Amino acid sequence: MGRDSSLRTIAFAEQYDAVWVAIGVHPNAADTWTDDDAGWIAELARHPRVVAIGECGMDFYRDAAMPEQQERAFRAQIGLARQTGLPLVVHTRDAAEATLAILREDAVGLDVILHCFSLVDHVDEVIAAGWYASFAGPLTYKPNDALRAAAARIPASRILVETDSPYLAPVPRRGRPNQPAYVAHTLARLAEVRGIETPTCDELTTANAARVFGW
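Now predict its structure.
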C-alpha cells in the first residue's frame, strides 16, 4: 500500500461506518521505502478512520525486496505505531525468526496483531508477549492441525479472525477468490477448535477487535 491507495481506502471508509483502515507499506513493497513514506503515514494516521499501522513486517517467501530493505521499513513503521499510539499489524511469511527478533527489540509495549497467524512454533512467546493472533482461512485447511492447536492455546482476549481477502479462502470456499463474507467459515472453525459456540466466538473476537483498534 502506498499513499495514493491509502487515500482511496480512507475515502471508502468515510462512506461506510463499518469500514476502518490500516495504513502502511507491505514488506514486498519495501524496496522503495524512504523517509517520505514515514511522513505520509504519520500524516494520514491522524485521520479518524485510520486505526492501525500496517500491514508491515518481513517476507522471505518472495524476493520483491531485500531483507535489509524490509527491515528498514518494518522498524520505521514500528516507530510510527509507537509515535501515533496505534496498534501494529504484522505480516510474516517464511521469516519468523527475523520478524520476532525485530519485534523483541522494537515493539515492546505496543499492541501487535499477527496477521494471518502462522507462528505455530512460537506460541509460547506470542502468549508471553501479549500479542494478538488473527486467524484466516488456513485455520480450516485439513493439514493444519498445528495451527488449530495454536488457536486453542491463544488466550481468549487475544484471538481475532480475518479473511485476508481476496486470498486464502476458507473451506468450503477454498480455491475461489476470497471475500469478507467468508470470514464466517473461519469463525465457525475457530469456535469449534476452542470448544465454544459460534455466536460466543463472534462476540469474543468482535470485542477483541473493538478493543485493540479502538472502535
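The domain at 1-96 is CATH 3.20.20.140 (TIM Barrel).
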